[in-house]
Write a structure and sequence with these properties.
Blueprint: E1 10-14, H1 18-27, E2 32-39, H2 41-47, E3 54-60, E4 66-72, E5 93-96, H3 100-109, E6 113-114, E7 121-124, E8 127-133, E9 139-145, H4 148-151, H5 153-156
Parallel strand pairs: 1-4, 5-9
Antiparallel strand pairs: 2-3, 3-4, 6-8, 7-8, 8-9
């Protein structure tokens, strides 16, 4: 039996400064604020998130996915620095974008830290990519395809009969 998803996938991100990180994702990446809720310690402990309570902000991408920024009462440890794939359980958010250069410039103005400069690398003839860290060190990947329909024909080549 396979999982039957009902809505687009959501990603949770632990953070220290909930308001600042929320503003970054809204102002720089164009996410929309959905809701903010406070969870009590008992609920946080029952599901294995934290010893104390936490606050969560839900944000939605222009395409419909959501991220949850979760700030525990006790300030979490900072993200490990270094190369992304040098530690187990590494994860990052990938955004397939139309204009990587413009977004990179906006991220730079907002204080994002880039791994190998703020210019996209041509990975293949039809693919450019760029990695950076948001203000709290979470890794973001930006990807631009020369032909998005070739990459995702399931979304872009739907012809009516």
């Amino acid at each position: 039996m396979s999982m039957k998803m009902l809505v687009p996938m959501e990603v949770g991100i632990c953070c220290a400064d909930l308001q600042a990180l929320s503003q970054f994702y809204q102002d720089v990446l164009g996410f929309t604020f959905i809701a903010q809720v406070q969870m009590p310690a008992a609920a946080a402990q029952q599901v294995g998130l934290s010893e104390g309570g936490y606050s969560v902000v839900r944000l939605q991408t222009p395409y419909g996915e959501r991220i949850k920024l979760l700030a525990p009462q006790r300030t979490p440890e900072p993200q490990a620095e270094g190369l992304i794939l040098e530690r187990r359980n590494a994860s990052y958010l990938t955004f397939i974008v139309a204009d990587i250069a413009s977004l990179a410039a906006e991220l730079k103005r907002a204080g994002a830290r880039f791994f190998a400069g703020d210019t996209a690398i041509q990975l293949r003839p039809d693919v450019k990519a760029l990695f950076c860290r948001d203000p709290e060190g979470n890794v973001l990947e930006l990807v631009e395809y020369a032909d998005i329909a070739a990459y995702r024909p399931d979304l872009f080549n739907q012809r009516s009969a």
